Amino acid sequence: MTSTTLLDLGPQARIVAGLAAGVREEQLTDATPCPGIAVRNMLGHLLHLSVAFRDAGRKDLGVTTDTDPTAAVPDIGPGWREELPKVLDELAEAWRDPAAWTGMTRAGGIDLPGVVAGAVAADELVIHAWDLARATGQPYEPDPAALRASHDFLLAAAEEPDRGGGIFGPVVPVPADAPLLDRAVGLSGRDPGWRSTP
Hints:
Blueprint: H1 10-21, H2 39-58, H3 63-66, H4 80-94, E1 104-107, E2 110-113, H5 114-136, H6 144-158, H7 180-187
Antiparallel strand pairs: 1-2
């Protein structure tokens, strides 16, 4: 990742917030495309990663940026419907500062260049929004710029020999002429054809 092009995460953050608002209470325990992760856990992950990448963008390093996201299964609290859109807005605002994209920062306990952290943030928002949309039966069209950043990040990661074919799991083969979202989803180790079962 060598691009220094700034990406406005606001449009994709708003899409995530809209999907979260569309989740019904009875769907919170439904499965998502991530094995062992229910909708409520995915929402918790989105909340925690939004805080972490907000603080990474601000270069406000500490507990929120040092925590390994795989250390525990995330969950939501009673105020998640108000908290998640607020933190998503704060995340987008943090990455509107050009300084967020320069120098080094940290997320998930890993030190990385700001430009890479911004790409990871876009990827997290794009792919986990797909997870949430598929799990809850909602339509989903990601922000085109965020989708492109997500795809490019995942493609670069999949081509690294030490990744074992993908950053989140083995790449799922997808036709080269498939929609860009399907190709990104496949690169993330998910089956683009995944559907929730009643």
